[in-house]
Amino acid sequence: MATSIAEHHAVRLAHADAHAAAHGLALTPLRRQVYAAIVASERPVGAYELLAALEPERGRMPPTTVYRALDFLLAHGFVHRIESKNAYVACCEVGVPHRSQFLMCDGCGATVEIPGDDLADQLSHSGPANGFEVHRQVIELSGLCAPCARAARPVGGSS
Ligand SMILES: [Zn+2]
Ligand SMILES: [Zn+2]
């Protein structure tokens, strides 16, 4: 049975609420609103977009307010930061510690999280193995999602 997008978002919010309650995390109304806005977005969303999205409900807020909420959401694994876009996506597995890779569409901006520690661990170890001190590790792949790749290809072969 197909689940509507709204139901899907509600399930993710309910899961986040349960995770926060189980771990004594203060998912305050503002933090929850920021999280909900990220969940609702089909693509990574930046802090200023979040400010604009929340303005109808909360009025004009200083950016630091949203950044503090984002810091909380990042620290507790509710969201991930897409470094190359300076934007945020909702984590697909809140409550399960993991490292992630991301597939990002250059066409529509859709971003898919690929959780998995193997590749990330292998890369982390490659630094020290080469006498290199790693400060930041980001695995973000850009390209085209299936619908965008189909749209980019000429229909019927030759053109
Ligand atoms: Zn994740
Ligand atoms: Zn796309």
Task: Give an overview of the whole structure.
With 159 residues, the chain is of the alpha+beta class. The protein has two domains: 1-94, Winged helix-like DNA-binding domain superfamily/Winged helix DNA-binding domain (Arc Repressor Mutant, subunit A), CATH 1.10.10; 98-159, Ferric-uptake regulator, C-terminal dimerisarion domain (Dna Ligase, domain 1). The protein has helices spanning 5-22, 29-40, 47-58, 63-75, 117-129, 146-152; strands spanning 79-82, 87-90, 100-105, 111-115, 140-143. α3 (47-58) packs across α4. The longest helix has 18 residues, at 5-22. The mean pLDDT is 92.
CATH architecture descriptor of the largest domain? Orthogonal Bundle
Task: Count every helix, treating DSSP H or I runs of 4 or more residues as helices.
Answer: 6
By CATH, the superfamily of the largest domain comes out as: Winged helix-like DNA-binding domain superfamily/Winged helix DNA-binding domain
> Which class best fits the helix and strand makeup?
alpha+beta
The tally of beta strands, per DSSP, is: 5
Q: In this structure, how is the largest beta sheet organized?
A: 3 strands, mixed
Mean pLDDT: 92
The amount of beta strand, in percent, is 5-15%
CATH fold description of the largest domain: Arc Repressor Mutant, subunit A
The number of distinct structural domains comes to: 2
As a whole number of angstroms, the C-alpha radius of gyration is: 18 Å
pLDDT < 50 runs, ≥5 residues: none
Order of helices and strands: HHHHEEEEHEH
Strand order of the largest sheet: 4-3-5
Cofactors, ions and other ligands in the entry: zinc ion
Given this structure, which CATH class of the largest domain is correct? Mainly Alpha
Protein name: Ferric uptake regulation protein
Cofactor: Zn(2+)
GO biological process, one term: regulation of secondary metabolite biosynthetic process
Family: Belongs to the Fur family.
